[in-house]
Amino acid sequence: MISLTYSMSRFCILLILVSVIFDSTFSITFYLPVNLRKCLREEIHKDVLVTGEYEVSDQPNAKTNLKITDSSGHTLYSKEDASKGKFAFTTEDYDMFEVCFESKSPLGTGRVPDQLVNLDMKHGVEAKNYEEIAKVEKLKPLEVELRRLEDLSESIVNDFAYMKKREEEMRDTNESTNTRVLYFSIFSMCCLIGLATWQVFYLRRFFKAKKLIE
């Protein structure tokens, strides 16, 4: 029984460590100058829940707009005069997402102090509210932890499946490139051999015409 408990503890610790690697929290604080735009980018897998919370320091003479888009330009979240709030969306495909803060002021640059922006983003298992899930489904604490470990295990499996797929795509690309290089090398050698043969016959005819050789 003690051995089983120890094994379960090691397993839980391993999952927690892996969760830190695969589902880390993205948190950043930076200063946003007036009439400038700053964007942050992050790659996120398919069918992943993304949540975020932001807060922009108050500045009466400036307003800040927030916009989140994917690589195709589709708007996932947009907020004008954003000061404090939350957002959430679920990714439809593996993509690069861009979070942009833009400060605007009619007073111009240099007359308005920079605004302080705090951004906290979570995705995957870290983004799910298991306390709310426990209330809705009436789960016990152990069941909640098992649900979290199940979601974490599924996330890890999906990540490894994606990495395997990428490895297969890269291997196929590498093999295809090697094949093309081989065919191009053979074609180049044939062209060089043909050109050398033509030069030999051409020079032979030239020297015969000049009666330098018989």
From TrEMBL:
Disulfide bond in keyword set: no
Cell compartments where the protein resides: Endoplasmic reticulum membrane; Membrane
Origin superkingdom: Eukaryota
Transmembrane segments annotated in the record for this chain: 181-203
A Pfam family: EMP24_GP25L
All residue ranges annotated as the GOLD domain in the record: 37-188
Membrane topology term: Single-pass type I membrane protein
GO cellular component: endoplasmic reticulum membrane
Keyword Membrane: yes
Protein known as: GOLD domain-containing protein
UniProt record similarity statement: Belongs to the EMP24/GP25L family.
Annotated keywords: Endoplasmic reticulum, Membrane, Signal, Transmembrane, Transmembrane helix
